[in-house]
Amino acid sequence: MLSRRHFIMTTAALFSAPIAGPALATPANWDGWDALVTPANYNPAVSNPWGIEPRFLPTLVEANAGLTPGDIHVDAVARYLYHIQDNGTAMRYGVAIGRNDLYEPGTYTVGRKARWPSWTPTANMIAREPGVYEQYADGMPGGPQNPLGARALYLYVGQRDTYLRIHGTPQPWSIGRRASSGCVRMVMAHIIGLYDNVDVGVTATLYPADDWVTAES
Predict the structure, then answer these.
(1) Is 131 among the domain residues?
(2) Each residue of 111-160: pLDDT tens digit?
(3) Cβ atoms of residues 66 and 198 within 8 Å
(4) Is residue 16, in this structure, part of any structural domain at all?
């Protein structure tokens, strides 16, 4: 059922933020991994073995007029990601965002996409939390325990990779929180559903986390 909740556009500044490396995982186990992280008899609107708040399940909502179909908008206050459709609606998903001052609002382009990507922490991440990240300095291959999860959308400014991602997470309990090192996290089954409908080249706008609420919840 179509919800009449919608969101209001706000202004955001261009920027970049850190996390993750560009390498792809070997595809041999991709389908098996997809099955592993997707609940049996999966129904996006109601399946919730993760125990997240029901409002964070994928929901079709009404979008304001004038938004570009295909684009992504992240409401960092309400913890929602909206993917604009071509009929005046949007698919809304729950997300986690960067903790403390690690979240960086801005306007980006989806420069590339990856299925079951590998991950390498940035030098800043290692310096900030060596006990957590130093062991992965040479990278971590894709898989169900990889921090980027099942899919990743790589955000660029022009031709420059910002190291900011919209990606799956092996920590679904973090959805709705400020939990990441800067990226936007989604439940793996949710980003699998989003991924095939997002084209490289679309705009992703990340709104400020400390601004007024831009989505009715």
Answers:
(1) yes
(2) 999 999 987 777 777 888 787 767 667 777 888 999 999 999 999 999 99
(3) no
(4) no
* Enclosing domain of residue 37: 27-55+96-201
Query: How many structural domains are present in the chain?
Result: 1
Taking residue 131's Cβ as centre, other Cβ atoms within 10 Å add up to 7
- The CATH number of whichever domain residue 193 belongs to comes to 2.40.440.10
> Which pLDDT does position 36 carry in this prediction?
96
The answer to whether position 21 is within a domain reads: no
